[in-house]
Amino acid sequence: MCRHWESKRGHGQANPTLAPKRTILEMGTALKKRLFVGEDFVPAPASYLSSLGSQARKILVDEKLSARILTLNRPKQLNALSFQMVSRLLELFVVYEEDSNVKLVIVKGKGRAFCAGGDVAAAIRDINEGTWRLVAKLYWMQFTLIYILATYRKPQVSILNGIVMGGGAGASIHGRFRVATENSVFAMPETALGFFPDVGASYFLSRLPGFFGEYLGLTGTRLDGAEMLVCGLATHFVPSERLSLLEEALCKVDSSDPAIISAVINEYSKQPYMKEKSAYHRLNVIDRCFSRRSVEEIISALEREALNKKDDWISETIRSLKRASPTGLKICLRSIRQGRLQGVGQCLVREYRMVCHVIQGKPSKDVFEGFRAILLDKDKNPKWEPSKLELVSDDMVDSYFSVMDDEGWEDLQLPARSNLPAYAIAKL
Fold first, then answer.
1. Which NCBIfam families match (predicted)?
2. Residue 169 lies in a domain
3. Catalytic residue among 167, 213, 232, 345
4. 289: which of 17, 227, 301, 380 fits an S-S bond (Cβ 3.0–4.6 Å)?
């Protein structure tokens, strides 16, 4: 793992809520018929069970010696993660971790995306039909998967040869090795949709150099493979023409030693060219502006920079912030700032609370308006409410981080983990 990810861990923080160990061991056999919620299993809806057959083909499994290759196979939807895909991935990773015959897991996507995120359309449809709890269960399962990936005892290699956004970042960036290519496109565009970067983003964004994570989370800026490598989101850069050779070599390794795996990937890696206009070249300006305490102060700092120097990048950064949801921006900034002092489990527990408030539409319904304007009607003219940053009070922001006052709701309970390697322990 990138060293700077391990250098900002908090001290004296409460441990994430842990479920009994049996929950993670039982998941493999119970998952296809039940939805995992806390310490209990509740019956899955008929729509879930009826779609299991077709959804099984959305995750292709290839066994090659001691390696397992998982391919996200939903190319027309840019491999957007459905409930069933998340549950299948969770099941497989749980089984592989306990299987001594498996030494390495490789994850990739079919088509031009690794994974463009979660299935937002399906989630919004379920919420509009009054089944927000079902969406909450999806996030429970997805965040459990992320926690297992972040603390996995065996090497996971994610081949990021295409779009990596939202939930796709959650399914890869927390893993041990992340291989970017010239086709990689990374972004966390949630604030433009009235949401916030979740999937443990407050953990990995807060551990990027300086305040680059705040910049990425607030603006939704896209990065290419070279930029992913230099900021630490990727561990390696391999030209796409060498990927098949890399995969073949990894399957022959027959080892779970991260040093050996890294050495194999290094044989096919190269140092990519960083474009002259990359935002990473402006890290000094980013640090001066995005280190400010509030979104309003960040925008003011950028506007002062614009007065001193004509720069199209600064102007576009200001426009991006002013187009985004004011509520989304404020909860995003606080989330990343808290993430700097928390382990990955604590980040996921907190983000789960935030997600549940958002999908309930309390206090803001911006996520529904963002979906309408950006993804449904595509008029790209969302009517945010509140419409201005100054109208989003501290009390409103506080509410997203509070325990939900809803009967039957409970905090995310993460599975107990044991015998973890040092790099995984450093994340806790």
1. PRK05617.1
2. yes
3. 167
4. 301
Strand, helix or coil for residue 84: helix
Q: What is the phi/psi pair of residue 169, to 5°?
A: -65, -40
**Active site includes 410?**
no
Range of the domain at 182: 17-404+413-425
Contacts of residues 259-266 at CB distance under 8 Å and 24 or more positions apart, as own/partner, are 261/104, 261/155, 261/157, 261/176, 261/177, 262/177, 262/235, 262/236, 265/157, 265/177, 265/179, 265/235, 265/236, 265/238, 266/236
Nearest CA to 105 out of 146, 151, 64 is that of 64
In a domain, 2, yes or no: no
**Tokens found for residue 280:** 């990473």
pTM of the model as a whole = 0.89
Point out the catalytic residue in the list 91, 109, 117, 118. 118
Q: Which two tokens stand for residue 353?
A: 């609370």
Peptide bond into 421 cis (omega under 30): no
Examine the residue annotation and report whether 167 is marked as an active-site residue of this protein: yes
Q: Catalytic residue, from 91, 119, 126, 190: name it.
A: 190
Q: Is residue 160 part of a domain?
A: yes
DSSP 3-state of 361: coil
**How many domains does the chain fold into?**
1
The CATH number for 23's domain is 3.90.226.10
Q: Confirm whether 377 is a catalytic residue.
A: no
pLDDT per position in the chain (428 positions), as tens?
Answer: 343 344 344 333 335 544 444 445 454 444 444 443 333 333 444 444 444 455 568 999 999 999 999 999 999 999 999 999 999 999 999 999 999 999 999 999 999 999 999 988 888 888 888 788 889 999 999 999 999 999 999 999 999 999 999 999 999 999 999 999 999 999 999 999 999 999 999 999 999 999 999 999 999 999 999 999 999 999 999 999 999 999 999 999 999 999 999 999 999 999 999 999 999 999 999 999 999 999 999 999 999 999 988 899 999 999 999 999 999 999 999 999 999 999 999 999 999 999 999 999 889 999 999 999 998 899 999 999 999 999 999 999 999 999 998 888 899 999 999 999 999 999 99
